[in-house]
Amino acid sequence: MQQLLDEVKNMQKNAKCLFAAEKIEAAIDKVAKEMTEKLADENPVLLCVMNGAVIFMGQLVTKLLFPLQIDYIHATRYRGEMLGKDLHC
């Protein structure tokens, strides 16, 4: 377990920011606006792919002010490893 924690800390230390928080927020706003225009009268089911999309989904649903349902699916290619292989659901 300590080895995994050390690997995560090392990745965080060496990570590069690809997009500023403001750009990410603007992109989420754009997606929410488009979804609202298309789905506001539909009561859609939003599926979150765990675990990778949980943060995005959480930020997105706070901007969707219409009836909707939320569920999740679990899909992984990593299975505890650092490199992905075949997709498993």
Number of helices: 3
SSE class? alpha+beta
What is the typical, i.e. mean, pLDDT? 90
Ends apart, CA distance between termini: 25 Å
Order of helices and strands: HHEHE
| Highest CATH level, the class | Alpha Beta
What percent of the residues sit in helical stretches (DSSP H or I)? Answer: 40-55%
Q: Under CATH, the topology is which? A: Rossmann fold
Q: Order of strands across the widest beta sheet?
A: 1-2
Low-confidence stretches: none
| CATH architecture heading | 3-Layer(aba) Sandwich
Q: Please indicate the percent range of residues in DSSP E strands (runs of 2 or more).
A: 5-15%
Main beta sheet: strand number and arrangement? 2 strands, parallel
Count every beta strand, where a strand is a DSSP E run of 2 or more residues: 2
Note down, in words, how this protein is organized.
The chain has a single domain, classed as Rossmann fold, CATH 3.40.50.2020. Helix content is about 45%, strand content about 15%. The protein has three helices and two strands, in the order ααβαβ. It has helices at about 1-15, 20-40, 55-60, and strands at about 45-50, 70-75. The chain has a two-stranded parallel ribbon with strand order 1-2. Strand 1, helix 3 and strand 2 form a beta-alpha-beta unit. The mean pLDDT is about 90.
